[in-house]
Amino acid sequence: MPTYLYDCGCGYNFEQRAGIEDRLLSCPRCEGAARRRPFYREQTIRTERVPVPVTETEYRFEVDKRALKGRGWDYDRALDHIRKNMREDAEGHKQLDVVSANANL
Predict the structure, then answer these.
(1) Alpha helices in 2-70 (DSSP H)
(2) CA distances to 33, 82, 84, 99 from 49, in Å
């Protein structure tokens, strides 16, 4: 059974598990008739086209982009930040300079 919100004429509001047909219940405070509140569900409609990842690599890329966005980073901004803080060692290997990357946040 779902939980519904009910309002009573005495001003008391309460939640109660009830069947879908139970529109009137007795108020636990004053024993009067309490009416179930109307239930409205918000709907959002997407108007933009969203690419669907096909391969595992594309899927991981999208997951990483969403994780960055959840931390407050734009993907392009994060990529620029990483590129600016890449250093090449004596052997020619590129590595992220973590100290300068953290200092430039």
Answers:
(1) 56-70
(2) 49, 29, 32, 39
Report how far Cα 13 is from the mean position of its chain's Cα atoms.
29
Phi, psi for residue 103 in degrees, rounded to 5: -70, -30
> Smallest Cα–Cα separation from 35: which of 16, 56, 60, 58?
16
State the Cα angle at 78 between 99 and 100, rounded to 5°.
15
pLDDT in tens, 43-87: 666 677 767 777 888 888 888 888 888 888 787 887 888 888 888
Spatial CA neighbour of 36 closest among 21, 24, 18: 24
